[in-house]
C-alpha cells in the first residue's frame, strides 16, 4: 500500500528549525458533512470483531505514578490505553482518517511522570519517499482528545527497528520539554510540550539508511540516547546532563560499538542503567547480542548477558539471536528482566535476575501458557510457543510479579511469574484482506488476513474457537470465495505450510488442501474464485502469469490462456457458467460464458491504469456488476459487462459490498468505502447507489480501509470493514 510521494525536506541536526503546524484540537465524535447526494450521517455503533491481538506489539509503557495505567503501541494499528477496571485496552487513534493513513503506525510514546493525564505519541508508519511526514499527538486527558503537530520529518513505525526503545521522552528536569529521536533527521526538541519542534546539535550525523536514534531514557536528571548508525566506528550511546550539550558515554563496552542499543531501563535504587544490544535493530535479522549495565555514579560498565548467542541448539544448529526488551522493578533494587529476540531455533525467552544480573532464571522454562481465549496462538498445532519478536517488555511498578511482553501476534502477561495468558482484550491489529459473510450457516463472517490466514467467526465477540484455518495453515491469505448457490462450499488461497489452496464443504469450519496446485501457486498464490454452484475454480497468479481452472475440486488444473493476466476472477452469483474479470492495464471488462474455459473482451474505457480497483457481482442476479475505481469512481453493468456506465453519486470508490436489503426494498443494501464528496468514509445505499448515507463518523475511521467491505446478508444495516491494522470493524445502526 503506497501513498503519493511528497517532497522531503531534510532537517540537519544542529541546523535550522523544523517547521511545524500546531493543529487545532481533534474532537472525536464530531461528524463531517459528507457533501453530496443524500450523504448525511446515520448513527452507528462500531466494535471490533474479536480476533485477539494478531499483530506486533512494539512497546508497552506503565505509568510510574498511577497504579493500573499503561499504554501500548503497535507498528500499524495505533496506540491503546489499559483500563484496569475493565481489563481492556482502549484504542486511542481510531479517529485518524483515510488521508492520514500513514499516521496509524506509532513510532514512540511518552508519559509525564509528574502529570499523569499527559500523553504523547509520535506517529508515522513509513519513512519512505512515498509516505507522508510524521506527526506528534499530545493529550491532556490520557488520549481522550488530542492536539496535533505535523512534522517535516518522516518516522518509521513499521520499518526495521520498530521494536526498539521509546524515541520520545519528557525531559526529567522540565515537563514542558520533550525530546524526539528520528531515524534519519537527528534529534528534535520541543520547549512547549510538543506544539513546535527544533532540531538540536547531536554528536552523531544521521544517514539516509541507518537507524538514527533508537532509544531515549532518563536516568535521574540525565538523558541517554541510543544510536543505531555506529557501524563499529563511533560510539552508540550518548548523554546530556544539562539538556544542551550531548557527549558520548565514556568507556563503552568492547564489542558493542558494532551493535545497536535496542532498549534501556534505569534502576533508580542502584543508579544503574541496563542496555540491551543486538547486531541489527530487529525484529528480524539479529544473530548476536548482549546485555550490559552502566553504574552512573562512577561510569563503570559490567556485562550481564544471561546467555551468549552462538551456542549449539538442541538439534545441532547455531543458537543465534539478539537481545531486545529490558525492564527494572521499581520496588526491588537489582531486579531486572530482559528478553531475547529473533531466537527461532530455541524460541525466545524472558530472563529475570534479582541480583543485578549476576545470575538469571529463564521464565520460559517454567511457563504455563493459557491461550484458551485466543486459540489461534496454537498456530494449527497442539500448544502455543512462548513467543517471538520479544522487544516490548514491561514490569508493573506496583506489582513485582506482573510482567508483560509483546510478540509478533499478542501481548502475554503474568501475575505470578509462572502462569501466562494473553493480556489483549480490546487490542486488535490484524491487516485484513478479504471478508465473506455467508447467507447461511453457523458463522456470520469469514476473514482473510495478513500473517494469520483465514478465520471462521462463529461469534463476533470472541476469538474464533477453531483458531486459524488449518490443513493447511496460512501465513497470509490471498483469496477467499464462497459458492452462492451452495454456500457451504468455500475455497481459500494463500501462503500455506502444506499447499497454498484449500476447500471446505461445511462453510469454512474445516478444510482440506487441494489435491494438486499449479506450479505458479507455489511461489505466487493469488486470488481465487468458485462459481455459483462450486463446480469450477479459477485461480489467478498476478501480472505476467495466466489463470488456471479446475473442474474437479482442485485435483487437476488447466491453463486459461484468455484470462486477463493479473486480474482477480469474479463469479456470477446466479449462473454457474459465467465468470468476469477486469483488466486494469486496458480498462477492459472480460467475461466467460463457458464455465471459465475462455474469456472474451467486452466493455472498454473505465479506469485504464487504475491500479486500485475491485469488481463485484450483486448477489442473486446474473450479470449485475459493480466496478470500484480509486481514480475514476464507481461503474455499473447490468448486462454482464457488455456495456458499462458511470454512477454519478460517487467521486471515488475503493471497495464495495452487499448486505441484506432494507425493509420494503427489492435490491440488496450497498456498502462502499469511498467518497461522495470530500470525505473518504464508509457509506450505505438502499436505492442502488442513487443516494448514500455515511455510516461511520470522525471517531471511527481507522486509517486505510480500502481492502474489503461487506454487509451481512442476514442482518440489515450490519456492515463489516477490513482495516489495515485495526482488524475487522463491524457497525450496526444505533
UniProtKB/TrEMBL annotation:
InterPro entries in the cross-refs: TAT_signal, WD40/YVTN_repeat-like_dom_sf, Xyloglucanase_GH74
Keyword Hydrolase in record: yes
* Presence of the UniProt keyword Ribosomal protein in the record: no
| Signal peptide, first to last residue | 1-33
UniProt cross-references to Gene3D superfamilies, sorted A to Z: YVTN repeat-like/Quinoprotein amine dehydrogenase
| Keywords per UniProt | Carbohydrate metabolism, Glycosidase, Hydrolase, Polysaccharide degradation, Signal
For this protein, the parts annotated as crossing the membrane are none
Tell me its family.
Belongs to the glycosyl hydrolase 74 family.
The protein's name is 1,4-beta-glucanase
